[in-house]
Specification:
By secondary structure, the chain is α+β, with helices and mostly antiparallel strands. The protein is built from four helices and five strands. A three-stranded antiparallel β-sheet has the order 1-2-5. A hairpin with a 4-residue loop joins strand 1 and strand 2.
Length: about 120
């Protein structure tokens, strides 16, 4: 699985990226797995075109996203970070993923709760 797929730069000084990360283990506060919440909410999709070319997602990667085993997130990496090289982009991507996973945990913490 590719962690970072870089796309176009923009006028605000950033490079649009698609990030892939493993689905976290565990459950939300109502006992639903993060994976089941993600799938039930219809988030197990990719915005990338399937293929083996530049800017495309392989069939195997896409299958992992659709199965809910991999989360696809979008973000932006500042061009100043891109200019520092691969290690800097990777570290920035890791921080972006951690922030986004924290937000998703808050978003889905009560997902699936029902009450009579």
């Amino acid at each position: 699985m590719s962690k970072v797929h870089a796309f176009t730069g923009d006028t605000s000084g950033g490079c649009r990226v698609i990030l892939h990360t493993a689905m976290p283990a565990g459950n939300n506060l109502v006992g639903r797995t993060w994976k089941s919440c993600w799938i039930a909410a219809g988030r197990n999709t990719t915005s990338m075109v399937e293929g083996n070319g530049i800017g495309q997602i392989s069939a195997a990667e896409k299958a992992q996203v659709v199965a809910g085993d991999v989360i696809e997130l979008s973000g932006e990496v500042p061009l100043s970070v891109v200019g520092q090289g691969t290690a800097a982009v990777s570290a920035f991507a890791d921080a972006l993923v951690a922030t986004r996973l924290g937000s998703l945990a808050n978003e889905f913490n009560y997902y699936g709760h029902t009450q009579d």
